[in-house]
Design brief:
The protein is mostly helical and about 400 residues long. It contains 16 helices and no strands. It has one domain: MFS general substrate transporter like domains (Growth Hormone, Chain: A).
Amino acid sequence: MSDISAQSAPAGVFRTQQRLSPRMRFYLLASITLSFLAGSSVPTPIYPIYQSEWHFSPVTITYIFSVYSLSVLVALLVVGRLSDYIGRRPVLLVATLAQMLAMYLMGTAEGLGDLIGGRVLQGLSTGAAVSAVGAGLIDIDRQRGAVANAIAPVSGSALGALMGSVLVQFLPFPTHTVFAVLGAIFIAQFAGLLLIRDTVPVRSGVLRSLIPQFAVPAQVRGAMLVASAVFVAGWALAGFYASLGPALIRTVFGLPASLMGGVALAVFSGSGVLAILALGTRTARELSWAGSAGLLTGMALSLASLQLPSVTVFFCGVALAGAGFGTGFQGGIRLVVTKALAHQLAGVLSVAFVCCYLGMGAPAIAAGYAVASGIDIIFTAQVFGSLVIVLALLAMSGLVMSRPVNEPV
């Protein structure tokens, strides 16, 4: 694995002696993305337990989910570019501390307010970290960093959903144990961050970087326009399974919401990881094409399963859509990072993740409002799914109309 600090350093990167090898630093940063995103999906199979204990309505689950997504968006818009100015390490140290506190709040939650507070803090710290850690991975190794930026979030979501499901089903104190485990992981990662040094120098303009901005450098705009359609379609589908999945599985198929809702999210994310590994040598445009087609077909199968009804068809749709999500996300990330300069990476990635979390959060909020208004959950899922299909078609249209990316990816 090559270290960018050992190569001819591009603008904004300087040589600095490290106490950990490039491989160790790479794995440490990748583990942070993995654990942060695992923490985001862990509560999904636990929500039915909270609902039973605290007697809130199903729409409240969608609200909690949306609060997290909006918190991520706020952090991305405000501090998403900060690590390009003060370095990756300071941002990640603060974000990891905030994650520890979030785990404590949710692990000791005694009511809805504690849970929402923990999710807000978790969302803010995740939003602050994802662009910084993503840029840090590319700082170390540009090619493998782009792949890791696609694999780690997807596999983290799968790991978190599966972990939550298993703990809920088979271990005592499910609403405490999983947060204690994640808290211990964050403590270890914080210690690891103390051992590394930045490869990004401090730059002027820190305060200006905190002004919310949804813009990318001119040379990235065309690629971002195409990639954003893929991002929004894929993450809207992830939001579909995370917010409506457990209730839909219980309503249509009569299966346990906590266990099978988490399994569905794990299958979705896990198939995404396998697809990324299997198709990793394809070009960014080929991955984006495959991703859009997988999202469209998988969503169509999931909708068909609600009418049959067939849980087998449902999970086939989940797996195919997950493969589309993974390949589309990797293709989109590679489209944009190949255009960005080293000192622009965090800013470009923050815009990419804003598109992702807008896609995940906005439809989920609308779906929650629809269910709260008395609209049938199956009809709501059909409308939601139709929106995802339209977004996938738009992504395909963008790929058709855009010029091919000339750089090797």
